[in-house]
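Thread title: Can someone regenerate the structure for this chain?

I was given the following input by a collaborator and told the matching structure tokens would be attached. They weren't. Posting the sequence so someone can regenerate them.
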Amino acid sequence: MRKNSQFSYIIRIMAGAYLLYLAIPMLKKALMGEGGDSRLAFIGFSLLFIVAALYFIISSIRGFLKDIKEVGQDVEQEEKESVVEEKAEEEEIEGQEEKREESKEV
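Best answer:
Regenerated them for you:
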């Protein structure tokens, strides 16, 4: 499941980069006076593209890092649980050995 979400974050980052790729030249052309009567629309949509692109990129990076952090915490938790299980098994084995020794003595 995590691989799918990480892949989703990568796609969103690429989409944000593509929006920036489209928006920056469009904004430059509009600011230079190209576009005629629709110059304000070009500027407005360029700014909208830039805001959307930054949102996609920033939120995806945050989500990706959060996902990586959760994976690290899950691994640490699993390691702690395995250590506890190993100690419990060792104590159980020791207890069984002590019982055997006591039964031999009797």
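The chain has a mean pLDDT of 81.
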